[in-house]
Structure formats: C-alpha cells, structure tokens
Amino acid sequence: MPEDRHVDAPPVWGAVPPRNPNFTGRFDVLARLSEYLAPGATALHGMGGIGKTQLAVEHIYRHLADYDIVWWIRAVHQSEIRASLTELAQRLSLSGADEAITAVPAALEALRVGRPYRRWLLVFDSAEDPDLVRPFFPASNVGEILVTSRNPGWAGVARPLEVGVFAREESTLLLSRRGPKLTEEDADRIAEKLGDLPLAIEQAAAWLAEIGMPAAEYLRLFDKRVVEFLESATPLDYEVAVAAAWNVSFDALASADPAAHQLLQLCAFFAPKPIARGLLIGARGVLVAPELDAALKDPLRLGRAIRAINRFGLAKIDHGNDTLLLHRLVRLMLRNRMSEPRRRELRHGVHVLLAYRDPNDPTAPRHWPSYLEVLPHVYAAELVECADQWVRNLVVNMAEFLHHWGDHQGALDLAEHAVHSWEQDRQERDEYSPPELRMSERLAGYLWSVGRYADAAITSERTLTRYSEVLGPDDEETLHARLTKVKILVAEGDFKASRGLAEELHRKAQELLGQDDPITLAVAHECVNALLLTGEYDRARDLADETYTRRGEVLGSDNAATIATQVLLVVAQRELGDYPWARIEQENIARRIEQIRGSDSAGTLLCYHHLAVATRKDGDHERARELSVDAMRRLRTRYGDRHPLSLACALGHSIDLRHSRQFDKARALGEDVFDHYDDSLGETHPHTLAAAVDLGVTLRLSGDPASALRLDERSLERFRAHLGPDHPHTIVCAIDVASDLFALGRVEEAAARDEEALERARRVLGPDHPTTLAVQLNRCLDLRALGQDADRLYEDVLMRYRLMLGDTHPATAQAAREVRADCDIDPLPL
C-alpha cells in the first residue's frame, strides 16, 4: 500500500514497534520480502545494526490491510515466547488462555487451522537459535511467519533473506533528510566513514540534526573515537563505525544532561525490549549515582531525562505505551564504555528496581501481568547472580510464578540455575540464605512436577538437612519443607511411611502454629491424601471434612486450596461407597472451579477426572466415558501422556471403554498406562499394580483369563507385601484373582478365594459396600457352580444391591441376571 495512506491496525495487534518516520530506501529488500512471505517461515538475517527489525516493522505498516493478526514476539528466551503466545491466546479468547501450558498450544492450533482468522503474521524478533524457536511455528498452510536473526543458519527451517548495508544513495539520502545543511560531498564522506551501516547512519543523522555541528568537526570527533576504540580492541569494521558514531553522542549527552546519560547507562542492563516507565519510578533506597537517584524519585526529572535521550536518537520512545527501547548494539556499546565496578553498580541498580516491583504473591493470577513484565529483565540483568536477599527473593517468586502460570520447564530451568549459582556463592560464605533454602525446596517440587522423582528425592533430602541445620527441626519453614518428603514417599510407593510422616507433621503443626494456620491446614490436606492412599477412608473423610471447613473459614470457599480439600472429601465418600452423593457433589465442584479457574486449568481437569470416576461408579457408563475421554485429551494436550494426571485419567478411561465393550481399545490404553507406570514408578509401586489389576479385568473379559490370572496373582502378592492383606486394593485384586480362576474352570479354588475375600471385605469395608456386595455375589455363583445351596446368600446380596445402588444401576441388573461382578481400582493421582 502507499506509505501515506492511513489504514487502521488489524483487529489483533500485539507489541509491534512504532513505525520509523525516517525510514529510507530499501525498496528492493522490501519487494523481495513481500515475495518471500507465504505460508511457512521467512528469515531476515544479517549482522547487528543492519536494519532487520526496521525492515520487518516497515513491511508491517505498508501491509496493514493484508492481515487480521499481527503479533510481534521477542524470541530470545522460550519463556518470553510462551508469555507472548499466552497473551495472544487471551486476545483471541481461546479456551485455556489463562496459563501458558494450555494457552500456547491453543494459540498455535488456532493459527494452524485459521480460526478465527486466516490472515495472520507472527514475527519472531532476535531469534538466534532455530531449534529454540521452531517448536512455536504453527504447522499451517495459512498465515505467515517472519524471523529476524543475526544467525545465517536458517536454511531448512525458513526461507532465508540476507539483509546487507545501505546502498550509498540510501545512506546519503537519510543523512540529507535529517541534516539539510549537509552537502552531497559531506554526506558521502560520512557514509563512507560509517560503512553504510544503517544503524550508524541513523545515529549520525540524529546527532547532526540535534547538535547542528559542521560535518568536518563531526568527522574529526569520529576519527578520534575510532582511534580510541581500535586501541582498546580488535573489532570488526562495522563495530568500529557503530562504536565511534555512538561514542560521539554518548559524550555529548553526558555533558548536556548527566542524569539522562546515567539513565541511559542503567537501561543498558535491562532486556533489549520496551522498558516500562513504571519499572523506573518510585523506588526507595536505590542508590546508583546522585543525578540518576534524583531522577528515579521525581517523575518530572525522569521525564526530562527521557526526552533528552530521545533528542539524541539514543533510544526509541513509545509515548502511547510509556516505554523506551535501546537497540542491542547501543546496550553493548554503553556497557563496553564502563569499568567493571561501574557495570556491577548499574546492574545491581536494575536488580533493586526490579525487586522493588515484586508483588510478592506469585501464586495469585491478579499479579501475573506484573511478573510477565519483569520476566525478560530477570534473564537480561542476570538477577540470579545477585547476592542481595530481596533480589533473590524475586528470583524465587519468579520461579513460583512460572510454575503456577504453567511454564513448568521454565520454572525448573530457573530454579536449577539459581540453586547451582547460589551453591557456588554459599561455598564462599559458608552459610545458607533463606532464599537459597526456599529455592532448593521449590526445586524438589518442580522436579516432581515433571516426573523426575529420583532427582526430586535427592534434592528434598538435601534441602531438609539444610533446613534442620539452619532453622532447626521445629521451625515452620522446616515443617513446610518436610511436606515434599511426604510426596516423595508416595512416589517411592511407601504409602504407610508417607501417612506416618504426614500425621507426625500434622501433630507438630497443630502444636507450633495452631489448628487454623495455613501451614497446618496444608499439612492436614496432605494427611488426608495419605490416608486415602492407605485405604483408611473413614479417617480420611473425617479429617477432610474438618480441614475443608477450616480452610473455608480461613481462606475462603473459592480459594483453590479449599476446593482441593473438598475434592478429597468427595473422593473419600466415594471410596466409602456413596456413589450418588459423590457424583452430585463432584459435579457441583467441577462447575464451580471451571467458573473460577477456567475450563483447562489443572484443578478443573482433575475435578472432571474425579467426576468421570464418580459417574461410572454411579452407573452412568456412557456419560462417564464422554467425561473421561474429554479430560484425558485435554490433560495430554496440557501435560503430555506421561504426566501423573494424564495417566490416572487414561486408566479411568480404559475402564470406561471396557464397560462399553470396546475391549481392544481398552486393552491398548490399559497396557500403555501400565507400561508408563512401570517405567516411571517401578513394577512394585501400588499404582503400577492398580493398572495391572484393571488391565487383568479387560484381558479376562476379552477372552484371555490365563494372562489375566498371571498378572493378577503377581499383583496380589505385591499388594500384600506393600499395602497389607486388608487394604481395599488388595481385596479388589483378590476378588479378581478368584474371577480369573472361575473363568478357567478352577471353581473350587475360586470359591476358596472368594470366601476369604468376602470375610475381609465385610470386616474392612462393611457389609453394604459395593465391593463387599460384588464378592458376595461371586461367592453365590461359586457355590451354585459347585452344586451347593446359595439362595439365602443371593437374596441377601440382591436386596442390598437394590438398597445401596438402586434397581436401575448396571451392577444391580447384572446381579439380577446372576452375572459375576468385576472390581476396578481408580488410584488417586500422584
């Protein structure tokens, strides 16, 4: 489109830099770029300062009418890419847009299919590593992707388009526009000196326009700076031109406005992206330099300093968004001019400014925009390397934000880097700082969340030792850190030890902190979880009920922690056999948390998994299958196939498939879950054994009782060894072994096994529990197959089925037809 034609921005417009009003020339490159851009990716590559970003910006403004989405992404770190795509998902009102782990795939899928818009352009600016950026390219035959990079190695990933220096006439035209007093000869001499490098030409033009200095004097200062630069380094030719051009301007700014010069130096340690003015103002106790300190505390002085920087063309000011932006080479040149002590001083100034902006509540979604604003500067300013405790606390909070926001790998990477760096620093100090201890504790949790259980255990043990040494075994921080050990024991399959530790911590928390302290309530919640795992459903229900009530009073009924305990309360009641109540309550919870946290949050999907289980147990097998397949697909999209939540939901769905007699699909999915549990948790872990039992039922019903028996007998032996003969899962496994034997014609053995299982079920679960009714029904069929009377026993069990589950429940109908009952295990997600 013509340059002077006004066209509104596309409906979806994100972070595109302002247009350069002094953009000059580049007609051939712009024309080639228009030809290159097509579905797929195009990479503008060339050396620093060559004008790649300016070309991308100019192309966008010349083609506004061609796009419905233009989205600009700073592509230095993957966390920044995820943050930008998450914002795009929110702008598109996509499901799951609140958290990175669901928002990013949702945004890429919307772009891939072209809904709601097919005409889109993604710009990945400063993308130096193709392997880092390529996973975020939508695989689509609609839309366009543009990359700017200094790296020429994009062949095979994108169509490469190299950008060179200005043609001489472009250089002289830009110089003449900004400095009309220049003769053609003077402009040519300056362009020659600057090697026609666009960034250097633009800087020289801005400086000449501001100062009004004769060309001869400018060239004298330039040559002086070139000599100084060459004496201190052996740079590339274009680096000489850039450095000399800018050093002239830096010196002039330092002389005219020291505060502006110091502000410019400070900004060199932020990320090379727009710096929000809010990050610079209002900080108390930041001492960098007298003039700068005064400007940082006075908005009027800060505004004057920013205007001075703008006049000298040393930064781009975006008044609409109230930001300023330094080019990467400007940042580099500024830092190269400083002594190392001065660099440390200014870098630390940025550290303190960022720490001052920390909301100190990284789990609250209302503060996530603040953490996203700070995120790129955390990396660029090397906050991890700072020894200041407030700054380190921001690093800990940033990792927590990334984890809760859904960037689990980003949180893990930051935590591992920080723990390693602070460990090196600690060896010099020989003491542990509170942020170091907290980050080490968080690291154990992040390792757990990505399934690195062995590494999590090692880190947890090391952290607990340090907490005990530094704070003592009874300190509340130590107490909270020991909760991770409870989870580690679960991953190791030692449910009894996990329950024992949880109960010990609960008693200690009550003594030290009181019953209503949030830490005490968090420990109580883990204690409920541990009791469920050990099969003590009555105790779990009672403690869950008490903890849910207290959390509601202390934290509020809509708090995520309160709802999590309510879910465990429903699970406990479900495992006690109250299926109708559990289904109704779980449905209410699922709807409520979906309204609060969105349809694709981890908490929402966990609730829908439990709802699918409760619905199946309540007898609505078709609806259960619909719920479980939907939750499974969304969990796999969010976390992948091997995540604990994904595995638990997939196991439940395999049972639902079996109930709908899709035995081949049920077997394939059940085997997949079993293999994953076996790989990640080990062959003797109770969750692996639960998956084996569920698979065994499918094998038997699909005509392979011999394989089912081999699997179930091995599982039964291991259940008895690890959980004991009276654990509900052990009882279920024993019932299924008896059914395997019955299917193989070994009726007497089946009858003996059922007799023992019935006695245990009545004693452990009670006479009316659905599991007890299942084994009583099977016992009746054993006796009849052996020619013995079982009428009274059968009449009793049929009556109990009708009272407990109702006449229309599939289990009741199956009992009325005198068909053996099968028992499943739905293990609690890790």
TrEMBL record:
GO terms for molecular function: ADP binding. Residues 253-342 form the DUF7779 domain. InterPro entries: DUF7779, NB-ARC, NLR-like, P-loop_NTPase, TPR-like_helical_dom_sf. It comes from the Bacteria. Residues 29-176 form the NB-ARC domain. Transmembrane segments: none annotated. Pfam families: DUF7779 (PF25000), NB-ARC (PF00931), TPR_10 (PF13374), TPR_12 (PF13424). PANTHER family: AAA+ ATPASE DOMAIN-CONTAINING PROTEIN-RELATED, ATP/GTP-BINDING PROTEIN-RELATED. This is FxSxx-COOH system tetratricopeptide repeat protein. The gene is fxsT.
